[in-house]
Every structure is written in structure tokens, then in C-alpha cells.
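User: Structure please.
Assistant: Input sequence and predicted structure:
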Amino acid sequence: MANHKLNNLRQIRTLMYRLKRNFGLPMTLRQTSRVHDLETGVTTPTNTDIEIKRAIFPPAKEWQAFISLLGGNFDYGGYFDKTVRDVIIDARDLSVVPTTEDSIIFQTRQYAILSVAEAENTMAYLIRMKETARGATIT
């Protein structure tokens, strides 16, 4: 039984490798921490950027068709928001666990993280993100 599970995990790892090769694009995970000075009362935000060489960005049309096949939340003719994207990040590419407090910078645009789901044995993270309304590009 344990051997069967290891075989499944190996297949998932192989699939992740292939997806990274075909759909992998660079992005940055930005974690913002805030330090509050008790004497002055000033809160100072500090950004920590984690560069990811190949995050998996599935093609939008194929991904939408796949989600629709699964049933998704589209029982009554729902729609896809073009500012919302999904990304898969290999857990080996991160030294931290992403949270909804973090943000993502992809192709000079900033995205807020809406949700984070862990894959089997924390092999990867499926992140749903939405482009921030500011419209400002990040360099």
C-alpha cells in the first residue's frame, strides 16, 4: 500500500516537472511584514521578495474548460473574471508557505492572493489571485 502511494507521488512530481517546462513563467512572491515602533507610534512596512523561476500559469481557455468539466461553481451560468488567475507553485521553489496576506508580481502587474490550497503532501500550492485595482505597473 505504501509503495502504491509513493508511485502516485512520483507521478505527480513528474507531472509538475512537465507543467513547469511547458507553462513555467517567472514571478515574485512578495511578503509584507509590519513593524510597529512603540515610542513613535509609526508602523513601517517591510517587503520581502521571493523570486520563483518557473511558476505554472495554465493557459486561460484550457484551464477554464478544465474547471468547467469539474463542475466548479458554475452550475447556473457563472462567468470567469479576466482579472482573476490561477497559478501553481512547486513547494520546492518556496522557503515559506504563501498566505492571503502576501501578493504576487507577475509581468509587472501586482496581484492580491485570494486563496491558497495545498496539494498532496504539500508538493505544490494552487493559488487564486486577482489583479489589484491600482493599475500601476511594478518594475
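The beta strands are 24-36, 43-56, 84-90, 103-106, 109-118, 124-131.
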